[in-house]
Specification:
single chain; four-stranded mixed sheet; two-stranded parallel sheet
Length: 126
Amino acid sequence: MSTIVNVVILHMDMVLDDETLEKLKEIGFSRIPISYSKNEKSIFGVLLMKSLVGYTVRNETIKEAIMNNHVNVRVPLFFTSDTNMSEVCREFKEGNSHMGLICESVDAARKNRDFADHVMSSLKIG
C-alpha cells in the first residue's frame, strides 16, 4: 500500500510520447492511477501498463488514447479505512478493477466513485 504523496499519478492531458513511456517503464508498476487534471488528485481511472505492450507512439494525450481504445483503463475501487477485509476481497474477486483507493469517509468514497464513473462515461468507457 502506498500513500497518495508517494504515488505517481498521470493526468489526462499528458502526452504518451517516448519520454513518458520510458518514465513509466522506470517506475516499474503494473497499474498507474490517472487524474482528471495536473492540479488535482481526483483519480478516475487506472492505466493497466500491460496495455502499452506493443503500443505505437502517436504523441496523443492519455485522454485521446483512452477514447481511441489504444490503452486499457479501469475505474478503481473506493473504500474507507474501516472497510472489512472480506468486503475488499469480495470486490476485487468480482474482477472489475485492479486498484483500490482508501477514502476518508463513506461520503468521500461515494463522491469519488461517482466522479470516476462520470469521467469514464464521458470518455465512452464502461
